[in-house]
């Protein structure tokens, strides 16, 4: 036997599902000779790249991890007491390993199929309850992208709610975090809203144009104000007030809801979520029940299933802003689910007592610190504070000397203004940290160290010295869930119980069209939880983040190569935020040329709802372009509208390949047409998985596009977030990319769209790893395989489910739409198929987008032939079950589709009166029998939950009263 030496761990073979033998079989089924032939028949020659991607050679997993350790090693992990909304925190190891590092949690999708997502829905309702309890308000959403954008969402919400005719001014306390003010300015300007920035104590609230206000609690310099009077005066003038608040402080401070706030926004990061050099973290927004229909983001609510049991699902979904398209006031789609699950679980683990203890420790250390600073003759700007003190030194030289001295000791503080210093203590702060800080102050001031610096043990017990009105008296987190799982075994088992209720990529393929649920390889995930990646404060001096600088530089360059663009911004925290950022860039470009009137966005009817929502948030006029019967952009309609709006044309937004799963041949002509009319082309890059290495946004003629790194570039969906939506632009648009007020983000001039300069920096290593381990050839092979897998599914399924749209030669891109509307004649809805798939162990494809009543299937390149065949087997068997109904052999209402999904409880009930067997219900295939995934609830009645909205953990006593109401409506499940 001859042995030859070859690398055995080539990553591309692990990422792409089918091996050579499977590829050969699949090609036979499709009816083509080779992958090249398939690609030639699928991707129009006109748009094909003429060159191979120029990326570094692919690394193996081992090589990547070794190399990345060196890069990350250039980051210096200092003790950061910078604050400004970001605080070091102790993620309990049990949560780190069992949620943050656990694919059972991080590979799930947004819980659209609620029956197989009860675990994270429960975790999210815990999070909502935590936010509601701590803020003292009535309703909260399940997360927003960060504190800055949460504040901007409150502004938009108030603007939508106000009855004032000339509502053009929004008051912002000068003590709001600077990055929040930056984001607020970005978001207010396109809507013609002026920010009035000042001291809330002297603000002129009588101005009729003021419709809303925001204040910070505790304020940026640490002062804790009682806002009761301010809020009440604002209300007298018809002004709604948002309070940006710190959740940990709220365990001790009177909640803003009790001061009358209309909304409370903030960041839950310090509840166990690593700093991550800026993100991802879960923002939150809590508000009054009366505003529940306009609250941005997703809300989880309680409802009932077909058996009358309590069940959770996303509530009031038709209220979701982006579904309202051009009428929307928010575009939130992907949010920060994994991070809110972590923050909520941190509260479950610690409970109200331990949380209060953490807050007390932080406060007592801060008191110790301020005593020492005062002993040194320094006066603090805040009279009452929680964890932050600020002071002004005599000169800039002194402040610089302090910075040098502390940095030599590995400590970062906040240095701002001429010579001001801010110090924010956090959960991990120790007495030694306080002593080190005080000694450094003493040294630069040339004074002996104060007594407080000699402290080696815990600070003394002290009375809270805040005015009574600021001291929290109300209880919080009283629900048993926050008072039960405080020992590690308890929490471990609770988290496992929840995880077991959810179907993730760890179970089976999730073929959600437009969502690209591909492999999130373990090697890609490993660096995310390294301290060199996780423990950097976003406003740490850039010299300490040289590793990050290299990651950003490489990743931006690689994404430029993949897209064909000249510059990339990594700042947006989701695809929709990328859309918004990209449209702002186009807007700024027109404005810089004096074309202020160019304000029309052409958007095809088939576009994802976030497209028109983002354009509306930019204050653009949206003109909808029709689709043809083949699912393509109607060229005649486009021409007519481009001509009609030529003078005012800002841009076209186009998804490519289209959400109908085809590469439009005419895309280059479409882009040329828009350019001829002076507009720019925005490409929605959600379908980039069908482009990489074969074509590119620049190649088709686009000027800007966002990439969903949480789709094409392997960042896991986390059950509904985090996401990263960087944008790429052609050279003349580069100057308008987002900048940042606190950190100079490479001299870019645009306003910030996220609170952190590089958005969700700590998950960028995942995409970095993917590109580094795939290399140019591997990325192209992934795209080819994605197209192969989709066309294989088409070949196997089309005789059972007609494929709605195909390209000129009958091929589909990386996804396809399966027709299901004709089953309605037999009373079978597309949702019945989606729910029945759960009994077979699969998550449904995308339901009713972009065409109502259909399924959009995207297998991705990571699924092997065996898994694709299992999925086909399920779909074909379901088709047979539908036929039984169509042909009258099965009852139209009493059949396995209508009763799906089947829970163990239903099947084990002593009584079984259905006309089909228990076996057919639960074990319709051999795969299901061997690897059964049991849905934990039966079909959920969403309408019932929307009529009886409950969005927080209900106390046990309330269940007792409620139980009798927990019955399904006689109309049955309503979808
Ligand atoms: C075509 C398309 N555009 C935009 C988006 C919005 O992206 P995100 O959810 O990251 O905000 C999606 C999300 O699924 C999408 O499918």
Automatic annotation (TrEMBL):
Can you quote a single GO CC term? cytosol
Q: Which UniProt keywords apply?
A: Coiled coil, Oxidoreductase, Pyridoxal phosphate
| N6-(pyridoxal phosphate)lysine: modified positions | 711
Cofactors demanded by this protein = pyridoxal 5'-phosphate
CDD domains the UniProt entry points to: GDC-P
Domain Glycine dehydrogenase C-terminal: where?
782-902
Q: Which residues form a coiled coil?
A: 628-655
EC numbers listed for it are 1.4.4.2
- Keyword Coiled coil found: yes
Q: Domain Glycine cleavage system P-protein N-terminal: where?
A: 13-441, 482-743
Q: Name one GO biological process term.
A: glycine decarboxylation via glycine cleavage system
Its top-level enzyme class, in one word, is oxidoreductase
Q: Which GO terms describe its molecular function?
A: glycine binding; glycine dehydrogenase (decarboxylating) activity; pyridoxal phosphate binding
The reactions it catalyses are: N(6)-[(R)-lipoyl]-L-lysyl-[glycine-cleavage complex H protein] + glycine + H(+) = N(6)-[(R)-S(8)-aminomethyldihydrolipoyl]-L-lysyl-[glycine-cleavage complex H protein] + CO2
- Keyword Transmembrane found: no
Similarity section? Belongs to the GcvP family.
What is its biological role? The glycine cleavage system catalyzes the degradation of glycine. The P protein binds the alpha-amino group of glycine through its pyridoxal phosphate cofactor; CO(2) is released and the remaining methylamine moiety is then transferred to the lipoamide cofactor of the H protein.
Q: How does it assemble?
A: The glycine cleavage system is composed of four proteins: P, T, L and H.
Q: Which HAMAP family match?
A: GcvP
Q: What is the recorded name of this protein?
A: Glycine dehydrogenase (decarboxylating)
Origin organism is Hymenobacter jeollabukensis
């Amino acid at each position: 036997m001859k042995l030859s030496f070859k690398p055995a761990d080539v990553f591309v073979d692990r990422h792409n599902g089918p091996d050579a033998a499977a590829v050969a079989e699949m090609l036979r089924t499709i009816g083509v000779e080779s992958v090249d032939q398939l690609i030639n028949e699928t991707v129009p020659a006109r748009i094909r790249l003429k060159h191979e991607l120029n990326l570094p050679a692919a690394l193996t997993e081992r090589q990547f991890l070794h190399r990345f350790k060196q890069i990350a090693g250039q980051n210096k992990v200092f003790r950061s007491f910078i604050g400004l909304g970001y605080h070091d925190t102790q993620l309990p190891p049990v949560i780190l390993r069992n949620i943050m590092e656990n694919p059972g949690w991080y590979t799930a999708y947004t819980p659209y199929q609620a029956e197989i997502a009860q675990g994270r829905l429960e975790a999210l309702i815990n999070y909502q309850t935590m936010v509601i309890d701590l803020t003292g308000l009535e309703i909260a959403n399940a997360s927003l992208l960060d504190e800055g954008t949460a504040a901007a969402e409150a502004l938009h919400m108030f603007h939508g709610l106000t009855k004032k005719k000339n509502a053009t001014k929004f008051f912002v306390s000068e003590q709001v975090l600077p990055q929040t003010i930056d984001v607020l300015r970005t978001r207010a300007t396109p809507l013609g809203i002026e920010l009035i920035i000042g001291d809330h104590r002297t603000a002129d609230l009588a101005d009729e144009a003021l419709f809303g206000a925001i204040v910070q609690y505790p304020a940026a310099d640490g002062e804790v104000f009682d806002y009761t009077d301010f809020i009440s005066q604002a209300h007298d003038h018809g002004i709604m007030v948002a309070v940006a608040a710190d959740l940990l402080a709220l365990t001790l401070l009177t909640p803003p809801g009790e001061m009358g706030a209309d909304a409370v926004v903030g960041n839950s990061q310090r509840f166990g979520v690593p700093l991550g050099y800026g993100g991802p973290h879960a923002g939150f927004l809590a508000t009054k029940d009366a505003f529940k229909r306009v609250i941005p983001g997703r809300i989880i609510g309680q409802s009932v299933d077909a058996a009358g049991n309590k069940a959770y699902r996303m509530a009031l979904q038709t209220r979701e802003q982006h579904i309202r398209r051009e009428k929307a006031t928010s575009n939130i789609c992907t949010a920060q689910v994994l991070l809110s699950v972590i923050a909520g679980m941190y509260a479950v683990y610690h409970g109200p007592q331990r949380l209060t203890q953490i807050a007390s420790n932080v406060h007592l250390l801060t008191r110790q610190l301020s005593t020492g600073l005062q002993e040194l003759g320094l006066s603090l700007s805040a009279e009452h504070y929680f964890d932050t003190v600020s002071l002004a030194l005599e000169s800039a030289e002194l402040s610089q000397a302090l910075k040098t001295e502390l940095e030599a000791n590995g400590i970062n503080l906040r240095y701002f203004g001429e010579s001001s210093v801010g110090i924010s203590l956090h959960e991990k702060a120790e007495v030694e940290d306080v002593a080190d800080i005080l000694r450094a102050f003493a040294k630069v001031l040339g004074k002996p160290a104060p007594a407080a610096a000699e402290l080696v043990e815990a600070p003394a017990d002290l009375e809270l010295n805040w005015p009574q009105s600021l001291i929290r008296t109300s209880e919080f987190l009283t629900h048993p869930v926050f008072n039960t799982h405080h020992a590690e075994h308890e929490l471990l088992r609770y988290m496992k119980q929840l995880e077991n209720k959810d179907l993730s990529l760890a179970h089976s393929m999730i073929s959600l069209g437009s969502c690209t649920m591909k492999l999130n390889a373990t090697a890609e995930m490993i660096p995310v939880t390294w301290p060199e990646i996780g423990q950097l404060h976003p406003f740490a001096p850039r010299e300490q983040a040289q590793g990050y600088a290299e990651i950003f530089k490489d990743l931006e360059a690689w994404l430029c190569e993949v897209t064909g663009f000249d510059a990339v911004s990594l700042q947006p925290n989701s695809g929709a935020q990328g859309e918004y950022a990209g449209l702002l860039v186009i807007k700024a470009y027109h404005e810089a040329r004096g074309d202020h009137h160019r304000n029309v966005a052409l958007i095809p009817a088939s576009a994802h709802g976030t497209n028109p929502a983002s354009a509306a948030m930019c204050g653009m006029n949206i003109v909808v372009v029709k689709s043809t019967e083949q699912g393509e952009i109607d060229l005649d309609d486009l021409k007519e509208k481009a001509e009609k709006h030529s003078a005012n044309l800002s841009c076209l937004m186009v998804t490519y390949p289209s959400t109908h799963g085809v590469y439009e041949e005419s895309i280059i002509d479409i882009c040329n047409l828009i350019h001829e009319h002076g507009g720019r082309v925005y490409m929605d890059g959600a379908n980039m998985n069908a482009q990489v290495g074969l074509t590119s946004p620049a190649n088709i003629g686009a000027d800007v596009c966002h990439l969903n790194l949480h789709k094409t570039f392997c960042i896991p969906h986390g059950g509904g977030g985090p996401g990263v939506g960087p944008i790429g632009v052609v050279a003349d648009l580069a100057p308008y990319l987002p900048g940042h007020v606190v950190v100079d983000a490479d001299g870019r001039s645009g306003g910030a769209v996220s609170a952190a300069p590089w958005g969700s920096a700590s998950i960028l290593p995942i995409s970095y790893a993917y590109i580094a381990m795939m290399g140019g050839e591997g990325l192209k092979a992934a795209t080819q395989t994605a197209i192969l897998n989709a066309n294989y599914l088409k070949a196997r399924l089309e005789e059972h489910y007609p494929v709605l749209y195909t390209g000129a030669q009958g091929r589909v891109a990386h996804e396809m739409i399966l027709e299901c509307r004709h089953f309605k004649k037999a009373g079978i809805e597309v949702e019945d198929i989606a729910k029945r798939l759960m009994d077979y162990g699969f998550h449904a494809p995308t339901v009713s987008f972009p065409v109502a009543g259909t399924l959009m299937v995207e297998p991705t390149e990571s699924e092997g032939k065996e898994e694709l065949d299992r999925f086909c087997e399920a779909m074909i068997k379901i088709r047979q079950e539908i036929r039984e109904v169509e042909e009258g052999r099965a009852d139209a209402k009493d059949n396995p589709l209508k009763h799906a999904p089947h829970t163990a409880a239903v099947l084990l009930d002593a009584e079984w009166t259905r006309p089909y067997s228990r076996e057919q219900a639960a074990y319709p295939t051999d795969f299901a029998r061997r690897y059964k995934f049991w849905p934990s609830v039966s079909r959920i009645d969403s309408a019932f939950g929307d009529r009886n909205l409950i969005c927080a953990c209900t106390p046990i006593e309330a269940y007792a009263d409620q139980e009798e109401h927990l019955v399904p409506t006689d109309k049955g499940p309503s979808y």
